[in-house]
Predict the structure.
Amino acid sequence: MTSAAHFRTASRSLPEAVEEGGAFSVGGAVFAALEDQHVHLRLPTAEVDEVLSGHPSAIRTRHGVRVPLDGINGQQLNHWLRRAWLAHAPEPLATRERAAHCAEPGDLPRTIGRPATRALASAGITTLDEIAALTEAELLALHGVGPKAVRILRETLAETGRSLDGQR
């Protein structure tokens, strides 16, 4: 069972998502909302059909699909929220996010993990040189980059005589 808190956290984690009264938008377009323990997802028709086929309790709406929170697990919710976000995000932002989702890490250490790699790529950061120009606070402000990733990046930079924020 998925909670309202999970819905809000997952929605807020999407780039440039804005919350107003239970609804989440990107670029001024609503992509999801929570009302009466139901998630409303604004999805393209083909994707609405996928949700309906996988969730017997889902209902087609004029602008997408409505699913009871207890009818969708957290992983599925994350997937469909991202798909709804992609359908409504301004094209440059959606393109950048799609590229980040499958980005190669450049010369970043793989040990920082996929969430950190995606978060950095989404921000246009794929090399250690770009990391060296940032502060620890800037890295930690990126959703998906945690203390472990920062520690690994700091250690990797130190091996080449560099540090965060361009300090030697």
The CA atoms of residues 38 and 68 lie 4 Å apart. The chain is about 45% helix and 15% strand. The first strand starts at residue 18 and ends at 20. The chain has two domains: 4-91, 103-166.
